[in-house]
Amino acid sequence: MFLNYTPHAIDLILNDTTTTIQSSGLVRLDEVDSGSSVHEGVTIRKTSLGQASGLPAPVDGVFIIVSMVVANALRGVRSDLVYPDVVRDGAGKIIGCKGFIQPV
Questions:
Q1: Could you say which DSSP state residue 8 is in?
Q2: Could you please report the per-residue DSSP string of 16-45?
Q3: What is the number of structural domains in the chain?
Q4: With contact defined as beta carbons under 8 Å apart, do 83 and 67 qualify?
Q5: Domain region containing 69
Q6: What is the pTM of this model?
Q7: d(CA 50, CA 57)
Q8: Which of 20, 52, 74, 100 has the fewest CB atoms in 10 Å of its CB?
């Protein structure tokens, strides 16, 4: 089973069949503020990635679909996180995914 914790529906394209996986929630990484500077009148915030918020507890046999950033930030910590292996059309627009990627 796959649960989608991205902000948008995901179209999984397998052979000639498309299955839409609706969003079940949203996982984000908190930003940790480390100050700021100004360059040519523009503020540049200095941040690092913090804890994940909105992440459900692991369940055997269930993969959680998250963003690439979240999956990579938590690799080695959570083995149930995957992100879409995207499919693009001729213009480069994402039209779905052909599977999922699990960072190692």
A1: S
A2: TEEEEE-B----EEEEEEEEEEEETTEEEE
A3: 1
A4: yes
A5: 2-101
A6: 0.87
A7: 18
A8: 20
Q: Report the phi/psi class of residue 59: left, alpha or beta, with left for phi > 0 and alpha for psi in -120 to 50.
A: beta
In one letter, which amino acid is 61? G
Residues 6 or more apart in contact with residue 36 via CB below 8 angstroms: 43, 44, 45, 46
Token pair for 52: 């994940």
d(CA 71, CA 89) in angstroms, rounded, equals 25
Per-residue pLDDT of the chain (104 residues; tens, 9 = 90+): 999 999 999 999 999 899 999 999 999 999 999 999 999 999 999 999 999 999 999 999 999 999 999 999 999 999 999 999 999 999 999 999 999 999 99
DSSP string covering 35-81? EEEEETTEEEEEEEEEEEESPPPP-TT-EEE--HHHHHHTTTT-TTE
Closest listed residue to residue 70, CA positions, set 45, 38, 35, 103: 103
| Residue in the structure block whose two tokens are 């908190």 | 30
